Description:
Layout: H1 2-21, E1 37-39, E2 47-49, E3 56-59, H2 61-69, H3 86-95, E4 99-102, H4 108-118, E5 121-124, H5 130-144, H6 147-167, E6 174-179, H7 191-198, E7 201-203, H8 216-222, E8 226-230, H9 237-242, H10 250-253, E9 257-260, H11 271-282
Parallel strand pairs: 3-4, 4-5, 6-7, 6-8, 8-9
Antiparallel strand pairs: 1-2
Amino acid sequence: xxxxxxLAAGAAALLLAGTACGExxxxxxxxxxxxPVTVQGAGDSPTAVRSIPHRIVPLGSGPRTTLRALGxxxxxxxxxxxxxxxxxxxxxxxxxxxxxxxxxxxxxxxLARARAATHAAVYxxxxxxxxxVEHAIGQIGLLTGAPVAARRVTASIVxxxxxxxxxxxxxPVVSAFVDLGNFTTVPDRSLIGDLLAKAHGKSVAGxxxxxGPFPLGRxxxxxxxxxxALAGTGTTLARLRADPxxxxxQAVRKGRxxxxxxxxxxxxxxxxxxxxxxxxxxxxxxxx
Length: 288
């Protein structure tokens, strides 16, 4: 045990030194000896790998962008993750992974079947907050032997958080509605909900809106100051102004409407960009 702790301390020292010096290569030697690595993601069971994985299958946009940001394209094997059930499991089996990195949207039964078919380790990334995303990126870095790259990615997110917090110090909370398409929205306990809160915003939909379209009559009564739509949903300011119900919203009347790219609010390396963008939308004057 003492030898293992000594190795861990040495690896941590290398990690800090590599970050401070801006090195591009991952450290070798002591880090390799840290395997097996075990981490706890959003899945029911911990994820354990015995050695550096060489064939990694991502399931979901968050895992794909995270692996790309860590420089692991050559070890990434993509599958059609729009499939579900046995067709998806068959694609994963053919990919012969030793690690599967999945978003929480992945069906647990599909993941269990894929694990049984491939004997690969499965990591489900937590994604309900900015802290979750930073933690997941660090854990994926440990699992894949890319901890220094992971530290660089999370450091950029931390810098974005600090800049936003400094700009918004003393700014009031702004009410908003986030439209994922057809007036469906997000709960407070979600990544977008957390980004909104850290940008001094508050969803008028409340902590746990029902699934499906948010009632327009209720939305009109709540009357958000800002309306945010996800790109690709077809929601535009012109359409909202053409609707007899939504044209009554103060956000629509005053043109406080914005669209954010879906890739930025996916649980991955671009969440710092998403936080900054949402902060700009809610508090434009604070960034002038």
